[in-house]
Amino acid sequence: MSKKILIAGSTGMIGKAILSLAITDPKVDEIICLVRRPTQQQHAKVKEIVIADFLHYSEHRETFKNVAVLYYCVGVYTGTVNRETFRKITIDYPLALAEAVRSASPEMAMVLLSGQGADRTEKSRLSFALDKGKVENRLTQLLNTRFYSCRPGYIYPSKRRKEPTITYVISRYLYPLIRIMGPKYSITSAALATAMYRIGQTLPQQNYFENDALRQWSS
Q1: Domain carrying residue 210
Q2: For the chain, is the Cβ count within 10 Å smaller at the N or the C terminus?
């Protein structure tokens, strides 16, 4: 049976790779991409929707009907925005979209690009861990077993890119060392996208995937 999927963050490193996988998947016949600005992407399966406000989607209810899987890859790098903006992007944005899509497609599943160290106890003093844990809890309450969280460690870009922060520049150079530490600590962007895509298409019983599990799903 053909599927309709929705990708938020399809111009980012992971979202773009998920989009490529969906385009070549014969089981997917319609792909909705939410973007901040129009791109040059042209394909018969793909429809782009430019979103001005990532908190309000009332005018897109018809578009959100019959969505089988929502892949959410929108995020922000720690240290690049202030605390309030980080919280809004990490918690409010995915929750608002999940609520909007679920109201139009009650059976939809959601695959979230979260992060290693997400603290579901909501006690962490680190904003990254705290906010990732909070949004996972709220999405679990909303979607129950149809919510899937992917928690990668360091993501090594499979394709060259301009690194967003000095931390990522350093991590890229240190990747050979990070890699030999074992499967718990790093994953390539291509492998992560493959794992997330397969999870969304398979809908397994497991709902939370740490770095080592994601590497297994990509192989």
Answers
A1: 3-153+189-218
A2: N
- Cα 35 to the center of its chain, rounded Å: 14
- State the SS3 of the chain: CCEEEEEECCCCHHHHHHHHHHHCCCCEEEEEEEECCCCCCCCCCEEEEECCCCCCCHHHCCCCCCCCEEEECCCCCCCCCCHHHHHHHHHHHHHHHHHHHHHHCCCCEEEEECCCCCCCCCCCCCHHHHHHHHHHHHHHHHHHHHEEEEECCEEECCCCCCCCCHHHHHHHHHHHHHHHCCCCCEEEHHHHHHHHHHHHHHCCCCCEEEHHHHHHHHC
**Cα distance between residue 64 and residue 84, in whole Å:** 28
Instruction: Identify whether the C-beta of residue 194 lies closer than 8 Å to the C-beta of residue 106.
Output: no
* Bridge partner list, 91: none
Indicate the number of domains in the chain.
1
Cα(75)–Cα(79) distance, rounded to whole angstroms?
A: 12
**Whole-model pTM over 0.90:** yes
Whether residue 122 lies inside any domain: the answer is: yes
Q: Are 138 and 91 in contact (CB under 8 A)?
A: yes
CATH number of residue 39's parent domain:
3.40.50.720
- Could you tell me if residue 13 is inside a domain? yes
**Cα dist from 171 to 150, 155, 191, 218, whole Å:** 20, 9, 18, 22
Report d(CA 72, CA 147) in Å as an integer.
11
